[in-house]
Amino acid sequence: MTDSICGINCGKCPFQSSCCGCSKTNGRPFGKDCIVALKLRKGEKAYCAFKEKLIAAFNELHILDMDKVTDLNALKGSFINLPYKMPGGQMVKIWDDDRIYLGNQLHKKNSDRCYGIAADERYLMVCEYGKDGADAELVVFCRWN
User: Origin, by domain of life (predicted)?
Assistant: First the structure.
């Protein structure tokens, strides 16, 4: 099992075989920054304050049919990096596959679709998608901090 900075059980992670471990890499387990490790460098209180501020920022968006955000999880960029169709027709991905972000999935009320939320220290995103990330649409992408 790999030692983690945040206390997560690395033995249960599906990316364990490709992870170099955040303790060994100073918070860069896949070669890029982990937002959790970055914030924990300033102490657990600083991390908790950051996380609460981010949760409040998501809730202040008042997205129709999205449940209140109560928690955020560390998520690898490749796990959340869905392609989105831009107005000009091109498909783009927003996040870096090798960074770790804070995010969650919330069911859209009265729908079979979900909201995916993700953020780093500068940007936050809300998207909506169907089963297995199908037909992903950006709802909000903005600078937040």
Answer: Bacteria
Measured distance CA(93)–CA(138) in Å, rounded? 11
The verdict on residue 26 lying in a domain is: no
d(CA 114, CA 53): 23
Per-residue pLDDT of the chain (145 residues; tens, 9 = 90+): 456 656 555 555 555 555 556 556 655 566 677 788 888 788 889 989 999 999 999 999 999 999 999 999 989 899 899 999 888 989 999 999 989 899 999 999 999 999 999 999 999 999 999 999 999 999 999 999 8
- On whether residue 87 sits in a domain, the answer given is yes
Residues ≥6 apart with Cβ < 8 Å to 89: none
Is residue 18 in a domain?
no
